[in-house]
Amino acid sequence: MSVRELIVLGSASAVPTKARNHNGYLLRWDGHGLLFDPGEGTQRQMTHAGVSASDVTWICVTHFHGDHCLGVPGVVQRIARDGVAHPVDAAFPASGADFWARLRHATAFRDTGVIRERPVAGERMPLDTGDAPFSLVARRLSHPVEAYGYRLEEPDGVTMLPAELAARGVRGPLVRRLQEDGRVTAPDGRTVTLEECSVRRPGQKVAFVMDTRLCDGVRELADGVDMLVIESTYLDEDADLAVEYGHLTAAQAAKTAAEAGVRHLVLTHFSERYRVEDEPRFADEAAAVFGGEITLVHDLDRIAMPPRRLTGPEAGQDLGHG
Known about the structure:
The protein is of the alpha/beta class. 23% of the residues lie in helices and 27% in strands. The strands form four sheets. It has a seven-stranded mixed sheet.
């Protein structure tokens, strides 16, 4: 059975705290593992979370501030040490290629050849995901250094309607052939089309938005996603600091989610200026403007993707993700 979940490896901002490690987020998706912003200590956090270097198929860096990338050397060296054989694609801002090179080769170790660099540039850049069951795009954000957010999308599929199939005598191998070919000949000689026996199943979508002010990129990434993982460094009382340092408040993140039609809002990247007892204020601030599901993350949380949406009757036979 496929697994789609977010594993939070760290949730602090610039300075880690006793309760929160530097950033790190592993999105598990049907056998793939996208590791976003591995900050300092990510390798150890992966051990605590019960995931290994072999689970990683992508490393996606939003920008080259330390809390978002200082874990790269440890993760790469663990990939080498564990003998990971599959390719690991690495996306990062092209303007920070020198920083990537320093991190990638930070110490002496027996190197690995599985890392495939995928530098991103421009306002919006699709990334080549090969035969992976999703597409991935990087979108420019607004931060003092060049930064990108990422959006993962599953292709739309179909959900078969058992009652419609039965009414037309389509069963067994004919169902699969109908899904693959778009039409079949039923036992009574009638031609049956896929449209008659199915409803469209929108592909699931996730957006990952770290350090940024409000901008068009944030809104584009968040548009209609099932899960929005987004920084909420500050409370709204410190909105002036958010603008100055290129960050969002919890209220701004929630307003973005509400306007974009997000289903599950995941808040993270909290400033060390706030105390543990301040945490409920982030959730309360977000809930005041967003009526959907809200998760204020803690390290090592595991957050499942929301159930998928259908465009027609919800009763049906789900024949996979494609």
